[in-house]
Every structure is written in structure tokens, then in C-alpha cells.
Amino acid sequence: MDKVLVLGATGGIGGEVARQLAAGGWQVIALTRDVEKARRQSGDFIWVQGDAMNRADVLAAASGCSVIVHGVNPPGYRRWAELVLPMIDNSIAAAIAEGSTIVLPGTVYNYGPDAFPLVDEDAPQHPQTRKGAIRVEMERRLLDASQHGARVLIVRAGDFFGARAANSWFSQGLVKPGKPVGTVSYPGAPGVAHQWAYLPDVARTMVQLLERREGLPPFARFHLAGHVDADGTQMVEAIRRVVARRTGAQPRVGNFPWWLLKMAAPFIVTFRELQEMRYLWQTPLLLNNHRLLQTLGNEPHTPLDEAVEATLVGMGNLPLLHDPAQNGTNRIKAPTTR
């Protein structure tokens, strides 16, 4: 049985990858600071108490693991410069010690305007933000690790959305979790394309690539196309369609209050960090998935309305459907492919 260590299994992408690997027969070791709380969230993993900032904890948890999923991030963008690089260094140390493959969910923060608008895996990484510079340094260290006994798999996607993608623009910007959807606030400039990635599709892509990891280069990077909103209206309209069909309500469309973030940024760290990433809503940046299609033949892809409905149900914006025959949202489905 394959054995995997997941850092960040209580979070969005880490948890989704862990669940899919466990369903596929992997033995999942999940590192967490609060084992009892984590067990209440999911009982499918072997929970191990420890901290991703503690190298000894990571090394011990990774013993015998052929894969390490590095899905951990400081919450709310806080203390990035202080925490992000030490955590990846601990995962790298464990991967070199075990000869493991590190899986990293990549971001678009790495790129600057010289790589826009269509970005492939080998595009230059010249970021214009602090978080982007940190992400570039993470990948540089991973490249070095791939030359010293570890293997690396980076899967880069657009903005996450999904039932468990709590720290996302969908749940922090477009709609308010736990409430009926009265208004959809869109952060983007009119007519500017934006790329979204449904969390279960991203995780399924990672799992499928892991199944082929022996045939991949020691340092492998892939981009997902996900859901491309060509003009900034398609995600909003999908939310409105789903809400109208389920409740009869017709949500309004509003502008995201960037002015409020700017005013509060000096006092609230998360707002300051979100303000720094505004350029991604003003400039089209699309990831080219040609390499992924060559490797897998297709990209896991859940239809947009289905993905949006599952997200809104999971976030508490829509009630559960008690009769699965009415709609397939509450049943676990394999995504379509393209």
C-alpha cells in the first residue's frame, strides 16, 4: 500500500487530496497540531500530532512515505515571510531523507506582466509582489531538492472554489458563507478574463499525476485550465442561475468594495494582502494546460453549474437536497474530462 504524508489535511486542497488518496487505497498520514479536533472533521486518516514548522515532527511523520503533499499555508496570509519558507524546507528535508515526491499546489503569484496573458510552465517568473517572490523562492528550493534525491510535482491552477475552499475569493469576495445569496460581488474589472479551479478537480489531477509519477521528470510542473471566465460575467451568472433554480431568488450583482480594503489595509493584515493581489483581477492571466493534456490525455473537469451548486451547498448558502433524484449535487460524482 502506498503511504503519503499530508501537511494541511484540515485545509482546502490538502484535505481534498487526502480524501481522494484515501479513497484510492493510500494510507494517509496527516500531521496536525490538534488531533482531537482533526478527528472530528475526518476519521479516514491516521492523524499524527505535530507542527509543520517543527522539522523533527515532519521527519518522523514522513517515515516510510513515498509522497509528501505540502498543502499547508499560514491562515489569512498572515506571517507569510516568516513561516512559508521554513515549512517548505522541512518538507524538503523529509523528502530527501525518504526519497519521496513532494506535491505542491502552485499559484499564479509567481508571474509578472512579462509572462501574461497565456502562461505555460516554462514562462519567466518575475513577480511584482512579496508573496510572489516567496513562491518563486519556494519553487527554486524545490528544484534544488530534485537534484538531491527528492522528486517534485507542482500543479498550478487559478483561484480555488469548492465546498471546503474557505480561504478563497469565492467565499471571501463573491458571496458570504452561511447566508442566502442576495448579492454577488465581483472583484474583477469588466471584460477581463479570470481563471477558476474547482477543488475536487485540482485534487483529482494531482492524484492522476501521482499515479504516473515514476514516468515524470524529477522536477515536474503542470498547469490546469480549470474554468475560464472569459469576460468576468460567467462565474457570476452561474451563481445566479443556481440560486434562482434552487430558491427562486434573483441575486443582484455588485462591485467588490476595494475601497473598503484600501481603507482597512493598514489595520487588517488579510485585507492588506488581498489588496496586494488586486492586479490579478485587472489583468488577464490564463494558464496553458497543453502539457497536462499531453500527459493525462484530458483534464478532470466538473461542469460549472454543478461545481458552483456543490460549493454553495457546502458553504451553507443553499440547503441540502434530501432527495438525490431531484439533482445529483449531493452524490459523489467523478468529474467529466476534457
UniProtKB/TrEMBL annotation:
Residues 4-215 form the NAD-dependent epimerase/dehydratase domain. The lineage of its organism: Bacteria, Pseudomonadati, Pseudomonadota, Gammaproteobacteria, Pseudomonadales. This is Nucleoside-diphosphate-sugar epimerase. It holds the Pfam family Epimerase. It comes from Pseudomonas extremaustralis. InterPro entries: Epimerase_deHydtase, NAD(P)-bd_dom_sf, NAD(P)-dependent_oxidoreduct. GO terms for cellular component: cytoplasm. GO terms for molecular function: aldehyde dehydrogenase (NAD+) activity. SUPFAM superfamilies: NAD(P)-binding Rossmann-fold domains.
